[in-house]
# Entry
Amino acid sequence: MLTVFDPPERSNKLCDGISRRNFLRIGALGATGLSLSQLLSLEAAAGIRGSTRSVILVYLVGGPPHQDLFDLKPDAPAEVAGPWRPIRTNVPGVEIGELLPMMSGMMDKFSVIRSLSDAQAGHDAIQCYTGRTRAGRVPAGGWPQFGSSVARLQGAATPATPPFVSVCYPCTHEPYNEPGPGYLGAAYTPFRPQGPTRDDMVLQGITTDRLRDREQLLASVDRFRREVDNSRMMEGLDAFTAQAMGVLTSSRLAEALDLSREDPRVVARYGTGDASKFMDGNGAPRVPQRFLAARRLVEAGARVVTVNYSKWDWHGGANNSIFKREQEDFPVFDQGITALVEDLHARGLAESTAVLVWGEFGRTPKISAQVGRDHWPRVACALLAGGRMRHGQLIGATDRLAGEPVDRPVKFQEVFATLYEHLGIDVERTTIADLHGRPQYLVETGVRPIAELV
# Structure
């Protein structure tokens, strides 16, 4: 396994309190010790075909308040409605919250599901990444997350970029972290440029600043290979190992992760964030540049990119009312997510790239005594863009208090079925064998893509 370290001056503290150097990690994909070369070998044996379509999945950590974003109820009692008012968008008849003015001007490029009806009650990222909960039937090893399944079924679009990349920040509250590959095994763990791995070997003398110097990089790789040859660890080197080395010898992935190579005007369009923000509160930081990194990774060939963004668990409290937090966070989110979608359209990536934004549940209709909203699994919302979908619409509706779906209830798995459809994967026919060799469908029987979108 190989690790490439960032320069010391870029070191920062991640939310687990450990000082890291924004690792670029290759290999060390889990407890089984599967290397990248073994991963590639397994994928080739499975006869995986290529594709150019992709998905960016954004998880809003902690559960966003649907009734303050996309489902405002201005005629509800004051203890439900809150201070914000709906504003018109560029789609006739579609209104959203006043703190999302940029989105309102390009609502024809978005769709909102207002009636997610089967959310879980507690904090857990699993449903946002797998469509499943921890209740009911769970196969040995657990359900794989969406990106792991896509990596297993479709493999890498290019040898230089892993099919599934996570730019999620680790969270100290474990349920906020994305789940693993489940019964697919460690070979289908996402590539994490900023995550921890085990049993790494360092590619000596090369930092991400020097990855573009191919001569120095290749010399370092040669030294690494000679050292490993001397220890007899490289016996059996084959084409898959060479392909694994190709991830390093290509600058494509490194360049995608290097935002300094982006036009400064584009970077500014996404807005700015603070990587230390909310870390002490168990969430992800408010860093809209992660959306830009996701776009660059898609351009580099990643099929699925996962992002976690900010902390949305707003129960209120002294000097921390939900509306104070919304006034701070909504405009930053509005700027970042509209920049991403605008960018995808400008670069001709909108049809090939689907974007999904959601959290684990909605928030209570009634504002609490602490001026917050608590957990509310009966209804939640989702935002979608791109992917050849029919946008500029609201799907589903809730009652006058935004507390219950009253029209077109939607399940989390229907959203995943829609994403699989976008990628060209038939959820009615496609199965993956679990640890016992039993075929497992990607979604439950009878779940279909959302007809209004596809």
About this structure: The chain has one domain: 50-190+250-441. Confidence is low (pLDDT under 50) at residues 1-41, 43-51, 196-206, 230-243.
